[in-house]
Design brief:
alpha+beta; Butyryl-CoA Dehydrogenase, subunit A, domain 2; Butyryl-CoA Dehydrogenase, subunit A, domain 3; six-stranded mixed sheet; three-stranded antiparallel sheet; binds ligand LLCWR77L; binds flavin-adenine dinucleotide
């Protein structure tokens, strides 16, 4: 905010009962992370190349060229200022425009790191790090995305030339969707069925050069282009999601990523001790980052809706006084505050997931693979529930802002359009929950076999207690006790998984049973994942959290998150007998009283996200709350207002009006 400028939200900020600067540190993860983030946000906001207020007005070609310009400028600044990788990734984040760089850094580089041998990493990573090559992740095809084993592209070893021949045998085998592929990438990690000596060895990754490094023309045998406009204006259309066909393209043998499986010069196929599933490792990595992204997108929408709800007034004027701020309506609070609590919940669960991922990666390096299934289930499940909740929440925030939320300059329509594919990419959310369900059913089936469940399924080890325990909540106050809440969530989750396992046992063919019970299995998986989020929020509160009143606010938010989920899924809790209807009603009473506690802190709680006005790009979410004059000013900037009488008046409006006059005379 400019020095001396009026702050229309100052009153809201004065009622805060906690130290906002300390909350900013907790949200960012550390003082260092906050400092880096703050510095990079300001660097981007102050650079005119990164302006984005005109994005929705640009044609696809203009938008795309502008994205290329921003990406090139960002890279120039990163090099000039010698930014660290941490700083560079914050710059890309605050530039806030989907671009080929997301896939280059987010998937191409990790795929080589995770699936390449030491030599392959040494050869390719330095080129990628300097952006002397630009890469994408080409897995999905026109005919298959979820079913990775169903991919049709082939990679056939030719022992005569020591090469693989990469080929697209059918229309449906065309690569379809990879970001950065359409117009930019020089290379791809392309996934194809490995065929050696007529034998199939499953799907593997291959580094394939697509375009000339001299003139960017596709290499012989490569057909490549963009797949066309996507949902919304601006939004994800800055990305060149692409189509790619291979016509017997030859690549050297050492361009197959060979950490999991090697093909020798003689055409021998050697399986290393690394599990096959590591071929899916890049997806595990990205799913984990997508959970952190969910907390960013959600907090951004909530920040806009909260500030605007404090500015906006409707009804309730007494004796000519001001009308009621819409944030004071209990209905507004019951729709908005759970989303605020969810933003914090997703932030902390993503922190935990990152540490789990780091831990599993270290173990994999040491040849320990036992924690891989849990890492897969956690990343898949949390990716699924956090992105679904965030997509719904952005739309809810738009509605919370009434009519003005539908204006592009509220920032919410474009945020929704950019965000919503997160429910599909990196694994369709339902398909991913079915993966979690498989893991849970397996865990339940092993209970009593002596194998003790660990990690996020450790609670299943107390199945005997959880299957019959009764919640001893007697008052609304009791719902503030984390142990009581966690036990209710554990009982609900375990009972849902056990019920699925029992029903599955009734089918002679387990796969048929799994298919028939899929809808119930997805609900059991979601219940397990919600338990993880609730537990990790409470565990966060066990840590030392400095700053006046910060922990208290987080305690309130953790209870709001848990009781909101309980209220939303009350049917599950009641039908499993985990709580009684009376206890459900008490939870709701507690939730209402928690909303009143959040109210004086709401604006400060969104200030703690530390978002610049540039990043938010929302007239409604401005830090200073100066909404109406800005909306009015912005309207006049619309190209339609360039002239008072619109283009087309002479051709289409005037003749119409004249005709109406003639008709009236008749
Ligand atoms: C820091 C920067 C970040 C940048 C972020 C950039 C974001 C950019 C935006 C968008 C990018 C989007 C990119 C993409 O979308 S890439 C394409 C993603 N595609 C998918 O996600 C496909 C989803 N499908 C699958 O994952 C799988 O096919 C499957 C659904 C898991 C099924 O696979 P399959 O049929 O082989 O497997 P089974 O079900 O039979 O399972 C076999 C056993 O393997 C285990 N398994 C499965 N997946 C994994 C995994 N990933 N890791 C570990 N283990 C796995 C499974 O549990 C089975 O185990 P079991 O013990 O039961 O045998
Ligand atoms: C914006 C965007 C960016 C992308 N970027 C990339 C990229 O960079 N690289 C890349 O390789 N791919 C990319 N993708 C592709 C993406 O990963 C796939 O679209 C995604 O994995 C879903 O697969 P699908 O499209 O085949 O969906 P489908 O599997 O066809 O899903 C269609 C419907 O069928 C249901 N369904 C499917 N299988 C089952 C089942 N077994 N049981 C029950 N229901 C089922 C799903 O729930 C869904 O409702 C991108 C996609 C988008 C939208």
């Amino acid at each position: 905010m400019e020095v001396g400028a009026p702050d229309y939200l100052a009153g809201e900020r004065q009622t805060a009962e906690f130290d906002v600067e300390s909350m900013k540190v907790t949200w960012a993860g550390s003082r260092h992370a906050l400092e880096v983030s703050d510095r990079m946000a300001r660097l981007v906001a102050s650079d005119p190349v990164f302006r984005k207020d005109n994005r929705v007005m640009l044609s696809r070609k203009e938008l795309f060229k502008n994205t290329l310009r921003k990406a090139a400028h960002a890279w120039k600044r990163i090099v000039e200022l010698r930014l660290t990788e941490e700083e560079a990734s914050r710059v890309r984040f605050f530039v806030d425009e989907p671009a080929f760089t997301d896939l280059h850094w987010g998937m191409f580089v990790p795929a080589i790191k995770g699936q390449g041998t030491e030599e392959q990493q040494q050869k390719w990573l330095p080129l990628a790090y300097k952006m002397q090559i630009i890469g994408c992740y080409a897995q999905t095809e026109l005919g298959h995305g979820s079913n990775v084993q169903g991919l049709e592209t082939t990679a056939t070893f030719d022992p005569k030339t020591d090469e693989f021949i990469i080929h697209s045998p059918t229309l449906t085998s065309s690569k379809w969707w990879p970001g950065g592929l359409g117009k930019v990438s020089t290379h791809a990690v392309a996934y194809a069925r490995l065929i050696v000596d007529g034998q199939e060895h499953g799907v593997h990754g291959f580094i394939v050069q697509l375009r000339s490094l001299d003139d960017h023309m596709p290499l012989p045998g490569i057909t490549v282009g963009d797949i066309g406009m996507k949902f919304g204006s601006g939004a994800y259309n800055s990305m060149d999601n692409g189509v790619l066909r291979f016509d017997n393209v030859r690549i050297p043998r050492d361009q197959m990523l060979m950490r999991v499986l090697q093909v020798t010069r003689e055409g021998k196929v050697i399986q290393s001790d690394v599990p096959r599933q590591l071929i899916y490792g890049t997806m595990v990595f990205v799913r984990q980052t997508i959970v952190a992204d969910a907390s960013c997108a959600l907090s951004r929408a909530v920040c806009i809706a909260t500030r605007y709800s404090a500015v906006r007034r409707q009804f309730g004027s007494q004796n000519g006084g001001p009308e009621t701020q819409v944030i004071d309506y209990k209905t507004q609070q019951s729709r908005l505050f759970p989303l605020l609590a969810s933003a914090y919940a997703f932030r902390f669960v993503s922190e935990w997931l990152k540490s789990l991922y780091t831990d599993v990666t270290e173990k994999l390096q040491r040849g320990e693979f036992s924690t891989l299934p849990e890492a897969h289930a956690c990343t898949a499940g949390l990716k699924s529930i956090t992105t679904s909740a965030t997509a719904d929440a952005i739309e809810e925030c738009r509605k919370l802002c009434g009519g003005h939320g539908y204006l592009a300059n509220s920032g919410l329509p474009e945020l929704f359009a950019v965000y919503v594919p997160a429910c599909t990419y990196e694994g369709d959310n339902t398909v991913l929950l079915l993966q979690v369900a498989r893991f849970l059913v397996k865990t339940v089936s092993q209970l009593g076999s002596g194998k003790v469940p660990v990690g996020t399924t450790a609670y299943m080890g107390r199945a005997r207690h959880l299957i019959q325990c009764k919640s001893n909540v007697q008052s609304a106050e009791d719902w503030l006790n984390p142990q009581v809440v966690v036990e209710a969530f554990e009982a609900r989750s375990l009972r849902m998984s056990v019920a699925c396992a029992e029903n599955l046992a009734k089918f002679p063919n387990p796969e048929e049973g799994f298919a028939q019970l899929a809808a119930d299995l997805v609900e059991a998986a979601a219940a397990h994942c919600q338990l993880i989020v609730v537990t990790k929020f409470f565990e966060k509160l066990q840590q030392d959290i400095p700053g006046k009143g910060v922990k208290k606010q987080l305690q309130i938010l953790s209870s709001v998150y848990a009781l909101y989920i309980l209220h939303k899924h009350l049917g599950d809790f009641l039908s499993t007998g985990s709580i009684t209807p009376k206890q459900g009603a008490l939870a709701n009473d507690q939730l209402r009283s928690l909303y009143s506690k959040i109210r004086p802190n709401a604006v400060a709680l969104v200030d703690a996200f530390n978002y610049t006005d540039h990043y938010l790009s929302s007239v409604l979410g401005r830090y200073d709350g100066n909404v109406y004059p800005t909306l009015y000013e912005e309207a006049w900037k619309d190209p339609l207002n360039d002239s008072v009488v619109p283009d087309g008046y002479q051709e289409y409006i005037r003749p119409l009006l004249k005709q109406q006059i003639r008709n009236a005379r008749l």
